[in-house]
Design a protein that fits this description.
By secondary structure, the chain is an alpha+beta fold. It contains 4 helices and 6 strands. The protein is 35% helix and 23% strand.
């Protein structure tokens, strides 16, 4: 397994460990949703001519600026970039995986209902 596969799998497993989440496969991509809304796009399982491995998260804090410093990272297309969505290539030199997990959690918190965030924060 390539390194990017390992990082992608860690992000997927972490995302699925958050409250009320599930995996889906629209458009042949792997996404993780909370309350029927995507909070992390993990792309296709394999690299192809049409797709370079990347992930997309919604970042509304200074993390957005940090993510955009990754070579090849960009605001997401289809108008999503204006709402804070950032696409980050797996093949770039990435920050530590813990930072990427923080980005996934921030995206989750931006999308998840308040009840799920309370569970995450131990306020049940």
């Amino acid at each position: 397994m390539d390194d990017w596969h390992d990082v992608r799998e860690r992000l997927r497993v972490f995302a699925l460990g958050l409250p009320e989440t599930h995996e889906d496969h629209p458009w042949g991509e792997t996404v993780v949703k909370v309350n029927k809304k995507v909070f992390v796009f993990l792309g296709m399982d394999e690299q192809s001519e049409k797709w370079d491995p990347s992930f997309t998260v919604k970042l509304l804090s200074e993390a957005r600026g940090h993510a955009l410093t990754v070579e090849g990272a960009a605001p997401s297309g289809y108008g999503l970039g204006k709402a804070g969505w950032v696409s980050v290539p797996f093949l770039a030199e990435l920050p530590e995986t813990e930072v990427l997990l923080d980005w996934v959690e921030e995206s989750y918190r931006a999308i998840a209902p308040k009840r799920a965030i309370k569970v995450l924060d131990g306020e049940t």
